[in-house]
Amino acid sequence: MHKNLVAALAAACLLHTAFAQTAKLPASPTAEKLPLKEAFVFVSPVTDTGWIHQHDEGRRAVEAAFAGRVKTSFVENVAEGADAERVIRDLAQQGHQLIFTPSFGYMEPTLKVAKEFPGVKFESITGYKTAPNVAVANARYYEGRYLAGVLAGRMTKTNVAGYVAGFPIPEVVQGVNAFTLGMRSVNPRAQVKVIWLNAWFDPPREREAALTLFNQEADVVTLHTATDAVMAAAQERGKMAIAYHSDMRKAAPDAQIGAVTHHWGDYYKRRTQAVLDGTWKSGATWGGVKDGMVRIEGFGSKVPQAVQAEVLARQKDIASGKLHPFAGPIDDNEGKAVVAKGQVLGEDQVQTMNWLAAGVVGKIAK
Asked: Is residue 248 within 8 Å of residue 256, measured between CB atoms?
């Protein structure tokens, strides 16, 4: 009995010590002793170029900036929908305090999981619905697309450009229209032929779509998909191409005449710092050329200096607010006026765009 009493007292002391030590632990993961656990969910594999490459570069920028204070991880090739919901929930259950979900199709799964984990912060990239613990961020990609159109309009010899598009969501429609408007601003006879894939990541079909467009007289192509397959096809055929998401000269050293690139590092670092500081709040961010989130670069050797200078001058005009890609007058490709002369589309109108500009051949896919 005495032995049992001693054992009980010893156990009580141990419990008291453990409780005291636990009580001293900081309640917030932002303390120096507990690195912030930050996760990213990627819709396709991490490759050397493309949409996910740029977001992974942003993740790496966070690790470099907050070495020892933040631990990042990622899950790649996660399909939008039920798979995404499962992965996001697993990450929250594993103790991640900040989760980035950079794909439009992740928006609803993110919101659903966020309700179950009110203490976790979520960043829905390209989404538009917020919640108390869900912020959204997107970029004015269409500003870069307009500049790419100016470049294509100056470089084409056939007056036909090709556009390999993923899903027919407003973000993609904005890009098609801005590209066309930029192209026709310097080449009024230009046409843009679009092939819709209803997929982000499908290299064989991306390549096939590019080849089809070349057979339809396009001598310059661009893309809104996740790989550099379109660029490689242009290289193979001796055509011109404008990269998207990232510089793709490795895949198309001769074909690339320019690249519309995205830059997420600064945004990811700001949001991470806000969590560490305890100042993170839900909200909506929509950056662009002015904010350094989008730009055109990577001009190929075929592009005359005068054309490069013209494109870069327009980039400065967009940054200063002097030029807006969706300033009227603009007609759709069925002859209907959609933006009157002297008017500029507001952000809400741009975000819900569901028409194709004059010069685009075809319709928005179902």
From this structure: yes
